[in-house]
Structure formats: structure tokens, C-alpha cells
Amino acid sequence: MTISLNGQWLLACVQRSAIQDLHINLPGDVHSALYAAGEIPDPYWATNEKKVQWVGECDWIVSRHFELTAEQLTCNAMDLVLEQLDTVAEIRINGHTVADFNNMFMRHKVDVLSCLQVGANRIEIVLHRADLAAKNRADKLPFPLPWAEGNNQIPFMNTLRKPQFHSGWDWSICLSVLGVYGDIVLQPIEHVRISHLATKQKWHQQGCELAVTLHYEVVSEKGLANAAVTFDGQTFHLTLDRESTKASVIFRIDNPRQWWPAGYGKQQLYKLALEADGVAITKQIGLRKLELVTEDDEYGQSMVVIVNDVPISARGANWIPLDAMPARMTEQRYRSLLTDATAANMNMLRVWGGGMYEKDIFYNLCDELGLLVWQDLMFANALYPSTPDFIAEVEQEVEFQVRRLKDHPSLVLWCGDNEVLGAINREPESRQHREKHLINYDRLNRTLAEVVEREDPSRRFWASSPCNGELDIIDTWHHDPQRGDMHCWDVWDSGKEFDAYLQVTPRFCSEFGFQSWPSLPTVKSYLPEQDWNISSPSFESHQKSNNGNSIITEMFTRYFRFPNGFVNMLYLSQVQQALAVKTAAEYWRTQKPINRGMLFWQLNDCWPVSSWSSLEYSGRWKQLHYHARRFFAPQMATFTRDQQGLKLHLVNDGRKNTELKGEVVWQSWEGEILYREPITQYLAADSTKVVWEWLNEDLDGHEQDGFFHVHLHSGQQLIENTWLPARPKYCDLACPDLRFEVAEHNNEIVVMLSSSKPAFFVHLEFEGEGRFEDSSFTLVPEHQRQIKYIGSASYDEVVQGLRVYHLKQSY
Ligand code: BMA
Q1: Which residues form the Beta-mannosidase Ig-fold domain (predicted)?
Q2: Which of 107, 303, 359, 469 is deepest in the core (most CB within 10 A)?
Q3: Atom from ligand 1 closest to the CA of residue 171
Q4: Top mutation candidate among 147, 170, 319 for ligand 1, by most atoms within 8 Å of CB
Q5: Contact 138/159 with Cβ under 8 angstroms?
Q6: Of the residues 494, 511, 552, 605, which should be mutated to test ligand 1's pocket, given the most ligand atoms within 8 Å of the CB?
Q7: CATH number, domain with residue 273
Q8: Do 52 and 134 belong together in one domain?
């Protein structure tokens, strides 16, 4: 029986003798324990980040006692297994040093039987400060390697296998956290040590074969052990002998129930169970065919994920770690963020390379929800060593992670790193010694490729994000949009207009985005009211991107009338962000099949901060997330304008033909109908179509008269969109007498909204937990809206905590 060492431990600081015998919950982190004990203030509040820097500049000891019986010690080996040990650590048991570890991305395992005793035992983990360890490693490098300066606040973290964002990023607090964030167990081994269980799917006309291979090591004198493997109600018994290290069985599945990404079909999962020597392992297996196709075509080279022979239009966002304080990474928060991703019609997330290989719960939920996963290996925006030690360390890490994750049906691609090539071309040191740094890069990158290809031949290794493909590795910033994946930062970084998104159609856009500020309720959670000002030092300390706040405000002046007051600035920043990302996403969707993927930067926040996220740290949906729900919907309508005129495009990503019915209306700012035309259209599966057009000559001179609005239904689903003839600041918006009322019927809380004049970006914000079914929409006089509240607040709480915004009142 596995013995868990999770729970209460004691925490002591090596350098500060007054801090001894505090409680720390493991899995957990030192900062969270100090905060709970009242030793430090809340690191996320105001400018407290500065006040807690000393924590990462100390060494810490966590320890506990545990009891063992004589019977528990009759085994042949006792493995101490630790997950997510961060990072440079020494393990002592009953005074003996049993191991030194220094890679948080490994599962560490060490046989400690010889140090254990009947009765009381003591385990101590010394957690060394990361900054000095990194500096030591950097000093020993054969030549200097630029680290992620600008993002990281602490140098040389590229030498340590620790999440790079722990030392700060352009959306992250710098805490240099320490702790153990995964399970700590003692695993007695009677006869056999299980290494891992691996599956392989082989598809043929009649069905699918699932080969299951158990990797093990027999340790007992007896030299034999038994195992049982069960899949879909069928069990095989295996004898494991000392001469071998693996055993396989094959299950044949006729008419398999296939697993599909969200929006394309159901997420059928089968259970695979193994039992051997008192150890039980279960996995959920999704049966599906998977390919990543990159083929030359008339537009350059495609990049498309194909599942069960169906090309997928990938729609989603980039995922960063859930929290900068790892003790706060709860299962419930994973579930709620990932459910919110699918609620916004996403079907893919990219686990970005400066964070961490995610916890099991993340991938299990992605399997259940149908979220495809683009998995970066953990390297980002710096140059990394290719010394033999480092390569050996990384080989072990990647082997472990690929074995751990490869059976997840949601995982579609392994990618070598994030923007490391961009770093080579940016840093003076590597620009000057370019050949040396390219060779250095390739040594490590080849190692990553070899390990991935050996351990998981079922998937492609993609060298870097972004890159053009096999041996066509280019700069992050000046690459070819006709092939490969692209990070499109022309608008945010280069300050171009939103229209710049229309000048390029990436084959697969793995990053693009625009920042906004958090909503007022989230701001209240980290700022005192006297600091509610966009240039107050504490508000600025929650903005980690150079010039971030200036970019947001400067962009206001281009598109909007300047907002009046802090609260409207927050609101308008979210309108602006939504508009930027919407412009790109909708246009690229009309360009299918040239484009087959778009993942905006970024889905979530790891602390309350101004950032590119669509979900705030509090879980609250930004306006962007409500827009994503519409612009990522399988059926979508959008306007574009070109030399001929204004066009209405319909997009269907579904696997079935669909009928869309409704109308296009041209309406004055006062709400007068200038023109209307009914639309009834059949859309083939996986298609796009221009269904309506208004020539420029008919529009010229009348552009300022009003706006176009499309209102369609596809079954129960409402599809709407609005086309403003000019930037909002040039539009003569009328003052709408927007009315809203909260009502409760059949245990449902709804907000009823109506207006006698058109209102734009009508946004519902609630102080408490939960969200609305829809928000940040155009409200036209003809269509009252009834918006459902989704959450656990009571009617009275919603009435008291609701605020409704719209564009005209922001100035
Ligand atoms: C990217 C990412 C991150 C960064 C983001 C915003 O390109 O890869 O490094 O946080 O842009 O600047």
C-alpha cells in the first residue's frame, strides 16, 4: 500500500532563526505558508511584491515525522516519489542525505528502504534558493548565454529546470517560489517496480487495435510477478519475469466509439486499468486517428490538425500556469477555467513553454472537454545550454514527460520551445556569435526531437513556436506567413492599426493578442480605492509589459473618444481588446482553409494583473471572452469591406450542413431602419461563403448614416454581428435610454435589457462570482434581450452587485 506523506509539514528558514516550526501544507509553497502564518502580507496586494522578495532569497527546510510498522518494511524496496519538487533540493531521511535534485519537471524517485526504521522516521527537504544555484551554473558555462532579460527579474534562470515565469514575465509577478507542488509518497515494492504504461493505436477498416505495453523491473528474489490489464470489459493476465522489462497485450475494438475535439463530436473515453503487485494505474483512453499535415499547396504550405480524417479548424488560446503561488492551483479552478474555454467555443489550448508541464488534472479535463493540446517543451525566450550535463538532464525530463502524457487523446503536437530563435536574433551576444549560438541551439533542439520521436512516434515534433517547419527555422518576427505557425504581434508590439491583421493570413496563428485592464471588481481585490488611477504606482506594479499602459491609452486615442474616469477606462480597455482580437479572428476564419488555426494570447492570468488574458485571475470573463464565444462559434457571421464593397461572410466549421435564417439591417444611430434584407442560407459542412454584398458606390456618402447589423438563427443558436462604418470615435452614437431589470423565474435569474436607441458593447458586470450567458453585445431597439446569470449568487446579490455599461456612456 502506498503511504502518502502529503499533509502537514513544518517549515523553517535557514537564514532567519525566528522563523521555525511554522505549518506548511504539502503539496504547497513556502510563500503561501508564510502568508497563512501571518509572516508576510498578501503578495498580490498593491505593491507587496517588493516586500516579499526576501523569501526567494533564503533557503528553507520542510520536515515531518511519519510512523512505519515492521510489516510495512518487509518489502524489497521503498521508493520515495516526489512530483513537482521546486527545484534545487536535498532530501534527508533520519539524518541521511538520500538525494539531491534540481529539476522541477521530473518525477523524482529514490529507494530509501535502507534509511527507514520501525516506529518514528523523519524526512527533511532542504529547498535551496534558486537565484544562487542559477548563478553558479551560469558561471560554469563555456560561453555566456543570454537569459530572458526583460521578462525575468532574476538572471540566469535559463540554466535551471524551473518554470521560467517564476522569476517574472511580462504578465507575471516575480516571487521565485519554492516548495513541493505534487504528491509525496512512499511506494513499497514487493516484487515489481512499474515504470510506465504505454498505449499505441492502430487503425484499419474494421476498427482499431490498442496495444498496451507495461514497462517494469522485477526486484524480488522470486523473479516473477503477475499483472492484469483491463480495457473495455476485457481482461488479460500477464506474467512479468526478471529477464524482461516490458510486456504487451493487444485489444481489438470493433466499431470503436471515436473521440472528437469539442464542436466536432463526442468525447468518448474508455477506461484502461492495470493492477500489478498492489499497484493500480488507470488511464482514460480516447480512440481517434490523429495527423498534423503540412503540405505544399497553392498558398504556400498548409498546417492543419486532422482528427478521424476530418480537418480541424483550431480555435483557442494560450495557457499559462494557473497561479504564481502553486498552493492555489486547485482542481476546482482547473475545471472552471477549462470549462470556460469550451464555453467560449474553443477547441485547442497551447501549453506555453515558459510555464510548466501541466498537472494530470489539466490533461484529463482536456480529454473530457475535447480541448486539443499543443504542448510546448519548457524553454522560452532565452538561450539554453547544450553542455553534456544539461543535455542529459533535459533528455531524462522529456522522456519522462512524453511517457506521462502521450496517451492523452487531446494532445496533438510536441513543440520544442517558445521563441528561442527570436531570442538568438535579438540578443547582442548571440547576434555577434551567431554560428556558435545556432549550433548550440540545434544540439539541444535535436536532442528534444530525438527523444520525442523515440518515445512518441505517433505525433509530430515541431521544432519551435513559431517556425516554418522541418529544417526551416526562422526568426520569430520576420517569418513567412505562408507556412508554419506564426506569432502575429504587429498590432500590440509594433503599434500598427487593427487592420494590420487583415494584411496577413497565417496558416496557423499560435499567438496574437492585445492587453486590457482587469474589471473593477478584480481591481478592488488588489488595490485600495485611493490607488484607483491608471498611473498610480500600485496599479502600475500590476502591469509587467513595457509601456503596456501607454499602448492601451494611446490606442484609445486612435479608436475611441477618451473615456471619462477610471472605471470607464477599465471598461473601454476591454472593449478595445475585444475589438482587436475579434478583427483578426473573424477575418482569418473567413480565409479557411488557408488558415486552420488561431490561438490568441492568452487565456488566463496567474495573479491579478493587466494583461492579454480573456479570463481574469478572479475567473471573471473579460469582454474578450464573451466575444470569443461568438467569434469562435462553429457557425459565425462577419462583415468585411474591400475595394468592391461591404460583404457578409458566413462560416460553418461543423461536420454537418446547416441552415441560417434571419436578416441584415441597416440602421441609423437613432434606431431608424434604413434598409433590411432577409437571409436564408444553407451552408455546407466545413465551408465559408459570401452571402450578401453592398457595393461601395451605394455606400459612399451615406457611411455616417448608421451601422449594419446581422441577426441570424441556426436552430436555437443566435448569431449576431455589427459593422460600424468607421472607428467608434467617428460614429455619432445616440444616447440610448437603456433599461434593465433583474427577474427571477423557475429558479433562473435573468437580466432583461431594452433600449429605444441602439447601444453598443452593452456589458454586464457583476461584483460576485459567476458570469452571464452573453455580454458585450449590440442592443438594438427591435430585440430586447434576456440574459441568464450563470452562478450561485442569489437574486438580491445580483440586483445589488450588477453594473451595466455601454459605449456611449464611457465618455
Ligand atoms: C509572446 C509569448 C510570451 C509573452 C507574450 C506577450 O510572444 O510567447 O513570451 O508573454 O508574447 O508579450
Answers
A1: 736-809
A2: 303
A3: 10
A4: 170
A5: yes
A6: 511
A7: 2.60.40.10
A8: yes
Closest residue to atom 1 of ligand 1, CA basis:
511
> Does residue 627 lie within any of the structural domains?
no
CB neighbours of residue 547 within 10 Å: 11
**C-alpha to C-alpha distances, 528 to 525, 538, 679, nearest whole angstrom:** 8, 9, 51
**Domains held by the chain: number:** 3
Name the burial class of residue 751, with classes exposed (0-12), middle (13-18) and buried (19+) by CB atoms within 10 angstroms of its CB: buried
Kindly state whether residues 159 and 195 are assigned to the same domain.
no
Q: Residue 422: what pLDDT? A: 86
* Res 277: pLDDT: 86
Q: What confidence score (pLDDT) does residue 476 get?
A: 66
The pTM (predicted TM-score) of the whole model is 0.98
Cell numbers describing residue 485? 505557425
Q: CA-CA distance, 6 to 186, in Å (whole number)? A: 10
Distances from the Cα of 292 to the Cαs of 109, 307, 314, 377, 709, in angstroms? 35, 9, 12, 18, 38
> How is residue 702 written as a grid cell?
451615406
Which residue segment(s) compose the domain that 796 sits in? 734-811
Question: Would 389 be classed as within a structural domain?
Answer: no
Residue 779 vs residues 189, 568, 668, 786: alpha-carbon distances, Å: 65, 19, 13, 11
Please indicate whether residue 476, judged by its CB atom, sits closer than 6 Å to ligand 1.
Answer: no
- Is the distance from the beta carbon of residue 601 to the nearest atom of ligand 1 less than 6 Å? yes
Q: Which residues contact 408 (CB under 8 A, 6 or more apart)?
A: 286, 363, 364, 366, 367, 373
Residue written as cell 521544432? 463
Q: Shortest CA distance to 513 belongs to which of 573, 580, 591?
A: 580
Q: Which atom of ligand 1 is nearest to the CA of 354?
A: 9
Under-50 pLDDT residues of the chain? none
Report CA(515)–ligand 1 centroid distance (Å): 11
For 585-738, where are the E strands, in sequence order?
597-600, 635-641, 645-652, 658-668, 673-683, 687-695, 706-714, 717-723
Residue 576 backbone dihedrals phi, psi, to 5 degrees: -65, -45
Same domain, 226 and 273: yes
Is the CB of 171 within 6 Å of ligand 1? yes
What is the spatial distance between Cα 220 and Cα 242, in angstroms, rounded to a whole number? 9
Q: Which atom of ligand 1 is nearest to the CA of 381?
A: 9
**For ligand 1, is residue 531 a contact (CB within 6 Å)?**
no
Helix (H) or strand (E) holding 296: strand 296-297
What burial class does residue 388 get, using C-beta atoms within 10 Å of its C-beta: 0-12 exposed, 13-18 middle, 19+ buried?
exposed
Position 472 scores a pLDDT of 77
Name the DSSP class of 620.
P
Is any ligand 1 atom within 6 A of the Cβ of residue 512? no
221 & 165 share domain: no
Q: Do residue 200 and residue 119 come from a single domain? A: no
